[in-house]
Specification:
Arc Repressor Mutant, subunit A; alpha+beta; two-stranded antiparallel ribbon; 4 helices
Length: about 100
């Protein structure tokens, strides 16, 4: 899909870092998995994520997942978010 135009007032408003930061900060009593953030923040269908990584469709989901991981690491390094591996999932929550 090709994006032809974007409203000027929307430029700079859609960025993964601030979207994730806002979600975690607004719900400090819960921890989220990476895929949980995809479903919560971006309304991704959970059924689409219930497959192996290379079978995700649309393929832009893999790029979204990578961007979320990168920005979660940034938030952890800045000391705003805590992370812990629980079983096979990484959990992230707002550091109170």
């Amino acid at each position: 899909m090709i994006k032809i135009k974007v409203p000027i007032d929307k430029i700079g408003q859609v960025d993964t870092y601030n979207t994730i930061k806002k979600q975690l900060k607004s719900d400090p009593t819960n921890a989220y998995t990476r895929m949980g953030l995809m479903v919560t923040c971006y309304k991704v269908n959970p059924e689409a994520l219930n497959k192996s990584f290379r079978e995700w469709k649309p393929h832009s989901l893999t790029q979204m997942y990578t961007n979320i991981v990168k920005n979660l690491r940034k938030l952890v390094n800045e000391g705003l978010v805590q992370a812990k591996k629980e079983g096979k999932f990484y959990l992230y929550w707002w550091k109170a």
